[in-house]
Amino acid sequence: MLHSRVEGEGKPLLIIHGFLGMSDNWKTLGGQYAEKGFQVHAIDMRNHGKSFHSEEFDYNAMVQDIYDYCLYYKLEKIDVIGHSMGGKASMFFAMAHPEMLDRLIIADIGPKYYRPHHQDILAGLNAVDFSLKPGRSDVEEILKKYVDDFGTRQFLMKNLYWKEPGQLDFRFNLKVLTDKIENIGAALPEGSVYDGPVLFLRGDRSNYIKDEDFEMIHTHFPKAIIKDIKNAGHWLHAENPKDFVTETLEFLTA
């Protein structure tokens, strides 16, 4: 069973993080949704956070995990917010189990195929040799050689934990995520359609969803609304949380 952090009472709202992320990335926003009357389930996907590690890592497996999670917690009509990889997993879930969904929010990812583009990040993570017992500052120095952006490094560093006294490690399953990176870019199957209400949010400084992708989005999601979050890149919920929460709550409570 997927690990999650559950808070609040009311309508179930699943929050599904992106590649190399975890539920803790959504702690602040999750609390805000809980205050507005949602029972928030911030999930750690397989091979991420505190969830189980597995050699199997593709969207079919993730969809089954989400389905099993909903059955376990007896969640019937759910709202879902999915960012990046979590957004793509949410799209696949919508196609497989439309009857379980009420409202769907996709954050900065489209239904198209994406080429692997995390090579520098994965190279940096794989350059860390935990057998040498590095400290947090040592890990950051290694990552600096591969990842220029301070915010991205901090995002990655959140995955560090003390496996045992004096021994750091990453929470995510780095070997499988590296080996199966190609699966993360998978496109939705041609001809698949979800007819429920969907909000696509994109960062106005991000290039993950381009104007020319709108036609494909509406082919798969005929009722899709597409909006920009100002002054934000791919991590739009972290870079402009105020507008992100405003737009998502407006959609969820309409």
Short description:
The chain has 254 residues and is of the alpha/beta class. It is 37% helix and 20% strand.
3D structure, described in words:
It contains eleven helices and nine strands. With 254 residues, the chain is of the alpha/beta class. Strands 1-3-2-4-5-8-9 form a seven-stranded mixed β-sheet, sandwiched between helices. Strands 6-7 form a two-stranded antiparallel ribbon. The mean pLDDT is 96.
Task: List the keywords.
254 residues; globular; alpha/beta; seven-stranded mixed β-sheet; 9 strands; two-stranded antiparallel sheet; 20% strand; 11 helices
The low-confidence parts are none
- What would the average pLDDT be, to the nearest integer? 96
How would you classify the helix and strand content by structural class?
alpha/beta
Sheet with the most strands: spatial strand order? 1-3-2-4-5-8-9
Domain AB hydrolase-1: 11-109
Protein name: Alpha/beta fold hydrolase
Pfam families: Abhydrolase_1 (PF00561)
Keywords: Hydrolase
Give me the secondary-structure topology.
Layout: E1 4-7, E2 11-16, H1 27-35, E3 38-43, H2 59-72, E4 78-83, H3 85-96, E5 101-107, H4 119-126, H5 136-144, H6 150-157, E6 160-164, E7 167-170, H7 174-179, H8 181-184, E8 198-203, H9 214-220, E9 224-229, H10 236-239, H11 241-252
Parallel strand pairs: 2-3, 2-4, 4-5, 5-8, 8-9
Antiparallel strand pairs: 1-3, 6-7
Helix pairs in contact: 2-3
